[in-house]
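dumping these here so i dont lose them again. two proteins, back to back, each one seq then structure tokens. dont judge the mess
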Amino acid sequence: MTRRGKRWGLVAAVAVLPVLILIWLVTAVVRFATSDYPLGGAPEQASCTEALAFGGASLPDGAYDTDCTVRTWLDTDYLVTFRMPRADATGWLTRTYGEQPETRLCREGADLCLDLNSDAHPPPAGAGANAVTVDVTYESTSTARVRFSAFTV
């Protein structure tokens, strides 16, 4: 290759670099503007056994319609929803956490709740979570829907 050909190759490489940087920048801006999770951490399916164990629990007998997800980025957040026999909900929470669930001061729509997120009421020893919240909503006279969240802070 001649000296002149080498020079044009260098000029072409230098000219293409700003274009590539601009393409990368536009792609990043579009991704950030159109994604619910532009920095990562979108919910992914998880093992229900793993999700509940992270909060020091296990799936109660008679549970069905389970859905378990995990979101990780800076923190880890497991979300588990399931249905179970209404008559067993209070007993499951008491056996699992040794605490009686609340019937007042619950999130809107919840009939029972348990918040383990303080020094006075921490998650059980060995749980990976710093906090656990459980909301139980009575759907009928025989069915309760449970929303369980265990997360780090």
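---- next one ----
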Amino acid sequence: MILKKVTLDNKSDLEFIEKLYIESFPRSERRPILEMHHLMEDESRFNMFLLETKENTKVGFVTYWNLGDFIFIDHFAISSEQRSGGYGQKAVQELIKQTSLPLIGEIELPTVSDLARRRVKFYEKQGFQIWDLPYQQPPYEEGFDPIPMLTITYRDLNFPTNFETVRNTIYSEVYKKKYK
């Protein structure tokens, strides 16, 4: 699995990612495309990678923030045509291999849907710890409510002791919000 850095100049890769982003995440769980473009241009901590096979087949994408002490996985998706082919596992393993920093992400509560339950199992199989601590994804835009989520971690972030500090960093740096 290849993680190919995407910039605004990579039109074909960007179009693939934008389409998959809109298909994979409900409006309440994604930022506007134009805002994502601004982040790619102006925010050095924000990274977007196309997930591609060695045969150059586009299978998905991941966006993440390097927040110094840890990496926050913002969005991760595999195209519906490529799911169940082991690409998600390969992509996560490649991301783990490329950094020594702890990884943190957020996932839907397993009570939301069968897909959410499968997602929890997927991350557990990859070695992530699932934390049932008070966390809500702040809205990316006005007019949407916060979404109850679980946090997931790979490598030690000293949870639950450091949970509030990590959560507050994500809220202020990624979402530009304060924890309420």
